[in-house]
TrEMBL record:
This is Uncharacterized protein (TIGR00369 family). The keyword Cell membrane does not apply. The keyword Hydrolase applies. Pfam families: 4HBT (PF03061). GO terms for molecular function: acyl-CoA hydrolase activity. Keywords: Hydrolase. Residues 55-129 form the Thioesterase domain.
């Protein structure tokens, strides 16, 4: 991990702040940590608010968790622009119930215009519940212009 005052660490903390500031995250008990360049981990706690009618977590929550983890893994490598998801494929492998879930995202390839990253969901029993791969494109939105993007 870089020293706390380095440019890379400041970028990681600013992305964590950006994540926390997003209005959608008021609907989820979650916390982002950028572990290293190209690696993001989001800790979620799921409950009945996230369930479909049959009593398990709805697919929209799977998508949100996987997309966010892959997105932040990719955006950890881009210091000037906000990325946009252009495509995302996911695979459901186990139903999720209430409790803690970790979404782990990793950058795979690309650093110029399009980046590819994948993510997986790990449940409380340390079993994989889903995985996904996304492509992310640089937008015209400057990170520095976003109110939530700030270190410390």
């Amino acid at each position: 991990m870089p020293p706390p005052d380095s440019g890379e660490a400041a970028h990681f903390r600013a992305l964590e702040s950006l994540y926390a500031s997003a209005p959608i995250n008021r609907l989820f008990e979650s916390r982002l940590e950028i572990v290293a360049a190209g690696i993001a981990r989001i800790h979620f706690v799921l409950d009945e608010r996230h369930f479909h009618a049959a009593g398990a977590v709805h697919g929209t929550s799977y998508f949100k968790m996987l997309d966010d983890a892959a997105f932040y893994a990719a955006n950890s490598l881009v210091t000037d622009r906000f990325l946009l998801t252009t495509a995302f494929n996911l695979l459901f492998t186990r139903p999720l119930g209430p409790g803690p879930v970790i979404a782990e995202g990793r950058w795979i390839s690309g650093k110029r215009r399009v980046l590819v990253a994948d993510a997986r969901l790990i449940d409380a029993e340390e079993e994989e519940a889903a995985r996904g791969t996304g492509t992310f494109m640089r937008s015209q939105i400057a990170l520095s212009g976003l109110p939530g993007y700030r270190a410390g």
